[in-house]
Design goal:
48% of the residues lie in helices and 13% in strands. By secondary structure, the protein is α+β, with helices and mostly antiparallel strands. It has a 5-stranded mixed beta sheet with strand order 5-6-1-10-11. The chain has a 4-stranded antiparallel beta sheet with strand order 12-15-13-14. Helix 3 packs parallel to helix 16 and helix 18 packs antiparallel against helix 19. The two termini are 23 Å apart. The chain binds a DNA duplex through helix 3, helix 7, helix 16, strand 12 and strand 14. Pfam families: IMS (PF00817), IMS_C (PF11799), IMS_HHH (PF11798).
Length: 868
DNA sequence: AAGTATTTC
DNA sequence: CGGAGAAATACTT
């Protein structure tokens, strides 16, 4: 598993990589790298598949070349400018860092294979894999020594390991086992998120809190007397236990990773009372720390299913996922909820380990000299110029060890498809027939979920593995096999005609339906169907729709505002549930709303407000920037104030006009987006407006406050010019939000680095007082004797700028970076470097707060997957 | 906005 | 004898 040194220069290397040869310990039974590689290449060479792989590889190489060309055109000016913007963003991110959640990623070890082995003792101690001769989905660890891995075709695996037993998958069984596991997980987080049958995220923050007061009895797990598979020997049970315990989680009792040993364990740790489970005769008592909880989970899983799991514990999902891989199989690893612990962990982490960075991204980054997270951070400015906004934001998050701190429930599905691989089909009639069958299957699946969509896509893969997709969108939703086929047929026909007189030699065909109407659309339809219909069957589908809409609107989450920036998304994640309601409300601002749904909504709103701790005074706006209460001013006025607050600091005009304006825009943009929801409320009644917006804003403040609190002040780690993390602000303000009167208390804190989470409030004081207090620049760490926030921010800007220059100087030696200064870029240096860079992402970074479109979804990449 | 290709899990 | 399904993103038109 531990393929730390990944080479990925060419296909061969990639194969090695995929086969996980790095962990081949060349045991007496396994094969060594060369041998495996040779066998694979023999089986691969000359195949159509391989041909296509080479072709794809060339495409990637071309992409890299283009990228390098772009890079070569970047001037030092541009880079500096980018650095400023990126660092500003990084600083905001740093301030939003939230270490308060305990996220666990559970990963069953070699799941399918393990189930098969459990249920068939014959397979014990033999290399096995689950799948077919054409594709394997899992292999056991024994087989992995031969280079047999998931995603490898079985026939090749057989050559690597002739004794390999390939077991056909029993998905029903895996589902059943998975359900058993999930039942356990639900005890710790009823809202856990299952990613697949063998993987899940939990947020155990709440559980940990409650658990602190649990008596031992409540944390006691009884040991099953005898496994179904073993011959029970009453005597052996106890012996078995300890041995068994040890085998369950080696690190449970012994070698704790450094993190776990560092002083001041987690905040959740009560005391040292429970570092290890206490094993009694036939029961085990687990402690109250996160580590103990996860041990307990794994223990219970093992007891219940006789299968082992690995787990990762961290403050966010991205890290938790990486952690679960660290001590696999049958192990766990924790990153303590401290900034330094996160940074230490991230430091040498190969980016490929991160979920979302795949083969291609790895290779592209490698071309830029980036393989570890530290390098990823160091190149942040460059990356912002070479990659799309969502990509570099994603990269930046990774390199700062940030990820999602909450688990978002799955949104609505966005598409549904069926596809099938088969031996070559070239006859047109067969192709149509196949297409029809696929459409029927799809229609069935759709019916199960009651879905209808407007876009039909067919996917074709020919015998050379070349893939093509063709889509068509119609004006009204379809769902039946006939409707879908009618559209798919045309798409297929077009393709057949296009190649005529050559037949399409297909090896795969797929049909997909997407473009499901969202609530908005449904509403719209509902309203306007009557007038709009053309055909009879459309009437049917439309009315079918009406039945559901009313109910579903409140049950299903609604997409997020498209306008929100990446950062805003992140920052406001915690108020999603509220937003859902907002969105709905605003969407229906045109009187579409039935009075019934309005009531429901209002009820929801008031519930939300009740649970919101700061609901007492919801007329009060508190600026999330200066934390100054704005009283019951109008929303417009409030937003203006916030804008002013945010754009104030970017008085970096002192340095360069262009820079100043762009950062200003950036900042404003963020705010606008943060508050876009509020603004939309303008059309609503005044009363509602204030409710919504004030809550929204208060929560925002809280979010900021919490984030800062979480980080607390970490002055010790704020060593300038160290390992590229220098400019991350590690000093922050601790903002206590006082719920009583909805006012803010801001205090400066120092962290006692040895104690876990003991935060001593040095001088808590109200906002009014704080302004007289010195502010500490998060960059240079020096006190600024000013009460003027704007001035203070100016200082920070200056500091930041200095830091960047320093870093740029350093970078001169870096092999990757273009040398800056007059030397190389003389040709360009004089000109305005407006858009030498390709418009890949063109305006989005510097301007276009309005045109920018951020996709509404949970980007796989973006925070939410790892954040999920 | 729609369509197509690519990437990732 | 080299999978399937879903989602996201980027690029193109």
């Amino acid at each position: 598993m531990d393929s730390t040194k990944k080479k990925n220069g060419n296909y061969k290397d990639d194969l090695l990589l995929r086969m996980g040869l790095n962990d081949n310990k060349a045991g007496m039974e396994g094969l060594d790298k060369e041998k495996i590689n040779k066998i694979i290449m023999e089986a691969t060479k000359g195949s159509r598949f391989y041909g296509n792989e080479l072709k794809k590889e060339k495409q990637v190489n071309q992409r890299i070349e283009n990228m390098m060309q772009q890079k070569a055109q970047i001037t030092s000016q541009q880079l500096r400018k980018a650095q400023l913007q990126v660092d500003r963003f990084a600083m905001e991110l740093e301030q939003s860092r939230d270490l308060n959640n305990t996220i666990v990623h559970i990963d069953m070890d070699a799941f399918y294979a393990a189930v098969e082995m459990r249920d068939n003792p014959e397979l014990k101690d033999k290399p096995i894999a689950v799948g077919s001769s054409s594709m394997l989905s899992t292999s056991n660890y024994h087989a992995r020594r031969f280079g047999v891995r998931a995603a490898m075709p079985g026939f090749i695996a057989k050559r690597l390991c002739p004794q390999l037993i390939i077991v056909p998958p029993n998905f029903d069984k895996y589902r059943a086992v998975s359900k058993e596991v999930k039942e356990i997980l639900a005890d710790y987080d009823p809202n856990f998120m299952a990613m697949s049958l063998d993987e899940a995220y939990l947020n155990i923050t709440k559980h940990l809190q409650e658990r602190q007061n649990w008596p031992e009895d409540k944390r006691r797990c009884f040991i099953k007397t005898g496994h179904s598979l073993e011959n029970d020997k009453p005597r052996k049970e106890i012996n078995k236990l300890s041995e068994h315990e040890r085998s369950i989680s080696p690190l449970l009792f012994e070698d704790s990773p450094p993190d776990l040993q560092s002083p001041g364990n987690t905040s959740q740790v009560n005391s040292e009372e429970q570092n290890n489970p206490q094993i009694l005769q036939n029961s085990v008592v687990f402690g109250t720390s996160a580590e103990e909880v996860v041990k307990e989970i794994r223990f219970r899983i093992e007891q219940k299913t006789t299968l082992t799991a690995s787990a990762g514990i961290a403050p966010n999902t991205m890290l938790a996922k990486v952690c679960s891989d660290k001590n696999k199989p049958n192990g766990q690893y924790q990153i303590l909820p401290r900034r330094q612990a996160v940074m230490d962990f991230i430091k040498d982490l190969p980016i490929r380990k991160v979920s979302g960075i795949g083969k291609v991204t790895e290779k592209m980054l490698k071309a830029l000299g980036i393989t570890t997270c530290t390098e990823l951070y160091q190149q942040r400015a460059l990356l912002s110029l070479l990659f799309s906004e969502s990509s570099w934001h994603y990269f930046l998050h990774i390199s700062m060890g940030l990820g999602s701190t909450h688990l978002t429930r799955d949104g609505e599905r966005k598409s549904m498809s069926v596809e099938r691989t088969f031996s070559e089909i070239s006859k047109v009639e067969e192709q149509y027939k196949l297409c029809q069958e696929l459409c029927s299957e799809l229609a069935q699946d759709l019916q199960k979920e009651g879905l209808k969509g407007r876009t039909v896509t067919i996917k074709l893969k020919n015998v050379n593995f070349e893939v093509k997709t063709r889509a068509s969108t119609v004006s009204s939703v379809v769902s039946t096999a006939e409707e879908i086929f009618a559209i798919a047929k045309e798409l297929l026909r077009t393709e057949i005609d296009a190649d005529f007189p050559h037949p399409l030699r297909l090896r795969l065909m797929g049909v997909r339906l997407s473009g499901f109407p969202n609530e908005e659309d449904k509403k719209h339809q509902q309203r306007s169907i009557v007038g709009f219909l053309q055909a009879g069957n459309q009437t049917l589908s439309a009315t079918g729709c009406t039945e559901k809409t009313d109910k579903d609107q409140f049950l299903k989450p609604v997409e997020m505002s498209h306008k929100k920036s990446f950062f805003d998304k992140k920052r406001s994640e915690r108020k999603w549930s509220h937003q859902d309601t907002f969105k709905y409300e605003t969407v229906n601002g045109q009187g579409v709303q039935t009075s019934q749904s309005f009531q429901v909504l209002k009820k929801k709103m008031s519930e939300n407000l009740e649970t919101s701790e700061s609901s007492n005074n919801h007329q009060m706006f508190t600026c999330p920037v200066c934390f100054r209460e704005q009283g019951s001013i109008s929303l417009d006025a409030f937003n203006k104030h916030v804008d002013a607050c945010l754009s104030g600091p970017s008085t970096s005009e002192m340095f360069s006009c262009s820079h100043a304006s762009s950062t200003e825009v950036n900042k404003k943009e963020n705010v606008h987006h943060s508050f876009s929801l509020c603004e939309k409320q303008d059309s609503e009644t005044h009363q509602k407006k204030t409710e919504i917006t004030s809550e929204d804003c208060v929560q925002l403040v809280e979010a900021v406050g919490n984030a800062s609190k979480a980080e607390s002040v970490d002055a010790s780690s704020n060593k300038l010019s160290e390992e590229g993390y220098s400019s991350l602000p590690s000093t922050s303000f601790n903002i206590e939000h006082c719920h009583q009167n909805s006012s803010c208390t801001v205090s400066l804190q120092n962290e006692d680095s040895t104690s876990s989470r003991r935060q001593e409030t040095l001088q808590p004081c109200s906002y009014e007082v704080i302004t007289d207090q010195a502010l500490i620049c998060p960059v240079c760490n020096l006190e600024q004797k000013t009460s003027d926030l704007t001035l203070f921010n100016v200082h920070v800007d200056i500091c930041l700028n200095k830091g960047i220059i320093q870093e740029l100087e350093k970078d001169k030696v870096s092999p990757v970076n273009q040398p800056k200064g007059s030397t190389r870029s003389t040709g360009n240096s004089g000109r305005v470097q407006k858009t030498i860079i390709k418009p890949k992402r063109s305006g989005s970074m510097t301007k276009s707060s309005t045109t920018k479109k951020i996709k509404p979804n949970n980007p796989r990449h973006t925070l939410d997957t790892f954040f999920k």
